[in-house]
Write a structure and sequence with these properties.
The structure holds 2 protein chains of 2 kinds. By secondary structure, chain A is α/β, with parallel strands linked by helices. Chain A contains 11 helices and 24 strands. Helix content of chain A is 22%, strand content 33%. The longest helix of chain B is centred in the middle third of the chain and has 15 residues, at 95-109. Chain B is globular, with a radius of gyration of 18 Å. The chains are: A alpha/beta, B alpha/beta. Bound molecules: adenosine-5'-triphosphate and magnesium ion.
Chain lengths: 494, 249
């Protein structure tokens, strides 16, 4: 049986097992039978009340997937995954999609409260300037296993013209937009996991910011895997039309279990002329125990297309969880003077494995990209940065700057940097810098002499090391991320 | 009161401290002088708990507590502060944040409430002002890109904020200009009181003019070979260590 931690109140209360989000919620679930075949896909599609074209799209992806094999090039290692031994659909029983927060199962609301996710639209306090309050509000789409259970602030957003809803709802309510963009950034047969996702994706968020609109609040999706033996395959699609602006954040946790669970998501971003999308991730799936038992396999395809001139897509990720992370949030810089950014902190401890990085594909003239990657490896973990910077012949005067820093804690962990650079334009410039360092004993002693515990000292040094990335996170999440880094590295020294 | 008896310590299998007996009563400031390599810094590290050193014999108590049995952070909470001969750089770690975390850790250990950022800054600004240091000292990363003298001043600032009961200053005066020297002395003098003791390691009589010690000890080859009043430092300034060491041998 999986261990259950019930101490959630403060960081101090975190026990030896470290992971404080590992509790399980007991709730009646509706499962699809285990296994994957056309009937299961039809069942998912039917549960979602999808139109025929969506089902066909899925079946085509499934046919492609059947001909594909898992990628083998990443520096990760795991026993074979039995794709027939998983549930591909799991949803809390009750109505398919609650219409309002009042209809959400109170058990679920309790769980989100425990996780610190605000699912209540708090009334604006009397006497407070509504504009400033608005800015600190966050609209949340909460995805529990295979379905979205609640999306907050929809009315406020609708007023601004913003669509923020579960993707299953978008398929029904905004088919023209979904048809126009879905699969255009990550084609269904892009890679093994993307094809699998396209066939069986269950929920995720859909965002459309119309021309000239600056989204009035942070949008965020909170993913929670709860059910056993269930894969989570979410799909997110964000479109920022001309001049639009949006900042989006995703967070994720899962119960602590002995078996591995598969998470294979696809995220597609589209930015038109002068549009900006800022996409931040705080990934905290269950990493497995100190001996490497259990944990999430996080095999994710994230890609953004800067289609418009001067468009900008910025990925910021803080990756502390998962037994295995395989993830390369990328930008295809098509537009002239478009900008791609990738800021990443990846922490691995115990037996975690991370192979993560980015691809910047420069097509447009004068396109620019920045990559800052901070890898921290402790315990027996392996942490690889894998990045591709590609300058196509059309990318005149394109620029890339890459900075990859690795920090090692202890002497059993590994850090690897694998940068690929391909330049087919003589005017394009690519710069790559890399460093590897260790937390020195005298740094730890200096901190401890001043009164800090060894763990606080590591937390402080690691946060210092990651500063350039953490400052890219939206304010509200930066503090959370800092705590998370410290907690993930607990027990890594001494 | 710091009470050291028969203390021996080594690095690997190389003995460095060969039997130190030293008592610093509460309220007193003692200076430690001695040739390069005699074990002065080692004494500071052993008292503050650096792991590279192995205590092979003897004892050290502070206000009755066996400090050698404590973790470094517990010693810090008990009031032990070491101003490093070569302060350590912490890239990306903001000085104010570092000091607030340290101060709050010590306050927690004493069951006192933690200071929030605003309360802390108020206190820290008052100290920087009193020590005539620029405010941006607090904003910079701990010792990164600091000049030699700035690093030493930063140690004094940390001491002023953490308010230790036993301060060990390891050549905090070395490499300082004359004004800064006064700052170090003022930093220690400001803490002087019936509950405060200090061990001031120095090579220069100059510092001791501003910071008149109750006793001066000479450490050579891992032993204290001579103890005297403030006049001993002046005598050494003139005659050097050679005669003393020969005498002790
Ligand atoms: N890590 C180490 N490995 C080997 N020997 C060491 C180490 N650290 C110190 N020592 C030796 O221990 C002895 C005492 O060193 P210590 O630093 O305590 O001297 P000190 O009295 O502070 O000298 P100074 O006046 O130059 O600062 C020296 O001979 C030194 O070389
Ligand atoms: Mg020394």
């Amino acid at each position: 049986m999986a261990a259950v931690t019930e101490t959630l109140d403060t960081v101090q209360s975190v026990t030896q097992s470290g992971y404080k989000w590992g509790f399980e919620t007991t709730i009646e679930m509706d499962f699809a039978p285990k296994g994957l075949n056309e009937d299961i896909i039809r069942l998912i599609s039917a549960r979602k009340e999808e139109p025929e074209w969506m089902l066909e799209w899925r079946l085509k992806a499934y046919a492609a997937w059947l001909t594909m094999t898992e990628p083998r090039w990443a520096r990760v290692d795991h026993p074979p995954i039995d794709y027939q031994d998983l549930h591909y659909y799991a949803a809390p029983k009750k109505k398919a999609g609650p219409k309002s927060l009042d209809e959400v199962d109170p058990e679920l609301l309790k769980m989100y409260e425990k996780l610190g996710i605000p699912l209540k639209e708090r009334a604006i306090l009397a006497g407070v300037d509504p504009d400033t309050v608005e800015n600190t509000q966050i609209a949340v789409d909460a995805v529990f296993d295979s379905v979205s259970v609640a999306t907050t602030f929809q009315a406020t957003l609708r007023k601004a013209g913003v669509i923020f809803c579960p993707i299953s709802e978008a398929v029904r309510e905004h088919p023209e937009l979904v048809k126009q963009y879905l699969g255009t950034v990550v084609p269904t047969a892009d890679n093994f996991f993307a094809a699998l996702n396209s066939a069986v994706f269950t929920d995720g968020s859909f965002v459309y910011i119309p021309k000239g609109v600056r989204c009035p609040m942070e949008l965020s999706t909170y993913f929670r895997i709860n059910a056993r033996n269930t894969g989570q395959f979410e799909r997110t699609l964000i479109i920022a039309a001309e001049g639009a602006h949006v900042s989006y954040l995703e967070g994720c946790t899962a119960p602590q279990r002995d078996e591995n669970q598969l998470h294979a998501a696809v995220v597609e971003l589209v930015a038109l002329d002068d549009a900006t999308i800022k996409y931040s991730t705080v990934q905290n799936w269950y990493p497995g125990d100190a001996n490497g038992k259990g944990g999430i396999y996080n095999f994710v395809t994230k890609r953004g297309a800067c289609r418009g001139a001067r468009s900008k897509i910025s990925w910021t990720q803080v990756e502390t969880g998962s037994a295995i992370t395989w993830k390369y949030p990328s930008c295809v810089l098509l537009g002239e003077d478009s900008v791609g950014e990738f800021y990443s902190v990846a922490v691995t401890n115990n037996h975690q494995q991370a192979d993560t990085g980015t691809k910047m594909i420069h097509v447009g003239k004068g396109s620019r990209s920045t990559i800052i990657s901070k890898g921290i490896s402790a315990g027996h973990s392996n942490n690889t940065y894998r990045g591709l910077v590609k300058m196509l012949p059309s990318a005149s005067n394109a620029r890339n700057h890459t900075q990859c820093d690795s920090l090692l804690i202890g002497d059993q962990s590994g850090a690897h940097t694998v940068p690929y650079i391909e330049s087919r334009n003589l005017t394009a410039k690519v710069e790559h810098e890399a460093t590897t360092s260790k937390i020195a004993d005298d740094q730890l002693f200096y901190c401890r002499q001043r009164g800090l515990s060894e763990e606080d000292a590591v937390g402080l040094i690691v946060n210092g090391f990651c500063k350039d990335v953490l400052k890219e996170l939206p304010m509200e999440f930066a503090v959370e991320a800092q705590k998370l880094l410290a907690v993930s590295l607990e027990g890594s020294v001494g | 009161m710091l009470d050291i008896r028969g203390l021996t310590a080594s690095i690997g299998d190389k003995p460095i401290l060969k039997g130190i007996d030293l008592t610093v009563p509460a309220g007193e400031v003692h200076a430690i002088m001695g040739p390069n390599g005699s074990g002065k810094s080692t004494l500071g590290y052993v008292l503050s708990g650096r792991e590279d050193y192995t205590v092979t014999g003897g004892s050290a108590t502070f206000n009755g507590a066996d400090i050698l049995a404590m973790e470094p952070e517990q010693r810090a909470a008990a009031g032990v502060f070491l101003a490093f001969q070569a302060p350590i750089e912490l890239p990306g770690v903001n000085n104010a944040n570092f000091l607030r975390t340290a101060l709050n850790a010590i306050r927690r250990a004493h069951g006192e409430s933690e200071l929030d950022a605003v309360q802390f800054l108020k206190l820290a600004r008052a100290e920087t002002k009193r020590l005539a240091m620029p405010d941006d000292m607090l904003k910079r990363n701990v010792n990164v890109g600091f000049s030699g003298g700035e690093k030493k001043r930063n140690e004094v600032l940390q001491m002023a904020i953490l308010r230790p009961k036993l301060a060990i200053l390891d050549e905090t005066d070395s490499g300082l200009d004359i004004d800064a020297l006064k700052i170090v002395a003022d930093g220690v003098n400001a803490l002087r009181g019936p509950e405060f003791s200090a061990l001031v390691i120095t090579h220069h009589q100059r510092l001791l003019d501003h910071l008149v010690p109750n006793r001066v000890h000479v450490l050579a080859h891992g032993r204290i070979v001579r103890t005297g009043g403030p006049e001993l430092a002046k005598e050494l300034e003139k005659s050097g260590y050679a005669g003393l060491i020969a005498e002790a041998a």
